């Protein structure tokens, strides 16, 4: 038996133990690292959602439906910084209303930018004067303008029934609905601009002018073949009109054409143009009960500020 003074010396590891290899730790795979990263992102996002203020409409966190990509994210952030807080879903509803209101407010300016004279820039469906004889004509144009496609031809030998008024109203409707600018050109001044360009630019001026009317998403080509021109100038007008209409048909652009000629009258000048127009909606207005333009002209003496009553014009 060992005495208390004796101490036991613990033995060190045996030779076999000191030389046993260490088992290496398993390396983290890419998928595991990715999962860990995504989990950290998820936790952080949930914290952001919980700490964000509630939507003023639905009461949920304004970040609950935060999109990863959207062209409206910057506007959403700015809106929430200056207005009541909204989630992205309800912001889009409110933003659509704001954009529609803004476009309605600035529609006159958009029409002027498109080429409409300031005098006619207030033309709309709301201020067109309806009568028993033009109600069906008006309704057809308005219905088309709500879902525009291909061609709309407003044709009538009668003057002062509002062909141009309704064409401009359709252009206004397009801008308000889409936010895209269109183009308005009367044929006479357009052809004159091309003829003036010949002296300086030659044929380049013509191709450039045609291209300027081929690109807009929405074009009003007013008074097709309506001017009383010599035969050689009618041929010039025919060639230009065909080039514009052909190019727009090829590109699938929306086009409104007005004319004092009927479809058969247009066909007598160029059947290809009448054929293109027939691919859309053709309105041949054959009877009216009054000409609105004399009233419109007289009204200018009654409205010194330049405003016009609800009348139509050619």
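Sequence proposed for the structure above (314 residues):
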């Amino acid at each position: 038996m060992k005495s208390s003074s004796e101490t036991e010396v613990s033995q060190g590891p045996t030779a076999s133990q000191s030389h046993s290899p260490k088992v290496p730790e398993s390396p983290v795979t890419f998928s595991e690292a990715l999962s860990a990263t995504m989990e950290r992102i998820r936790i952080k996002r949930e914290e952001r959602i919980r700490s964000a203020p509630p939507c003023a409409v639905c009461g949920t966190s304004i970040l609950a439906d935060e999109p990863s990509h959207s062209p409206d994210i910057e506007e959403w952030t700015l809106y929430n910084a200056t207005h009541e807080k909204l989630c992205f879903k309800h912001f889009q509803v409110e933003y659509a209303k704001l954009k529609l209101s803004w476009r309605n407010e600035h529609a006159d300016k958009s029409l002027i930018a498109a080429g409409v004279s300031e005098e006619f820039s207030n033309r709309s469906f709301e201020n067109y004067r309806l009568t028993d004889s033009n109600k069906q004509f008006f309704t057809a144009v308005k219905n088309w303008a709500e879902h525009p496609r291909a061609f709309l031809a407003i044709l009538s030998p009668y003057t002062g029934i509002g062909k141009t008024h309704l064409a401009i109203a359709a252009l206004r409707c397009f801008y308000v609905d889409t936010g895209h600018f269109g183009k308005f050109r009367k044929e006479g001044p357009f052809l004159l601009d091309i003829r003036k360009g010949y002296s300086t630019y030659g044929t380049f001026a013509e191709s450039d002018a045609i291209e300027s009317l081929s690109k807009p998403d929405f074009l009003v080509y007013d008074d097709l073949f309506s001017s009383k021109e010599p035969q050689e100038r009618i041929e010039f007008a025919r060639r230009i009109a065909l080039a514009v209409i052909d190019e727009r048909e090829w590109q699938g652009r929306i086009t409104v054409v007005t004319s004092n000629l009927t479809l058969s009258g247009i066909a007598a000048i160029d059947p290809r143009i009448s054929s293109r127009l027939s691919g859309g909606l053709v309105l041949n207005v054959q009877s009216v009960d009054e000409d609105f333009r004399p009233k419109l002209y007289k009204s200018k003496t009654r409205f010194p500020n330049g405003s016009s009553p609800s009348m139509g014009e050619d």
